[in-house]
Amino acid sequence: MIDFEQIRQLVDIRQAAEMYGLEVNRAGMARCIFHGDRNPSMKMYDDHFHCYACGAHGDVTDLTAQMFGLTKNEAADKLCADFGISGSSPPMIAPKRKRILSGRERVQRAFDVLTDYIVMLREFRVMYAPTDQGEPLDSRFILSLQQLDYAEYLWDELLDSTENERAEFISANIPQFRRYYDSLKMYGHLRPSMQKTHTERTENYGRKAG
Ligand SMILES: [Zn+2]
Question: Which residue of 53, 95, 100, 113 is 20 to 30 Å from 87, comparing CA positions?
Answer without folding.
Answer: 100
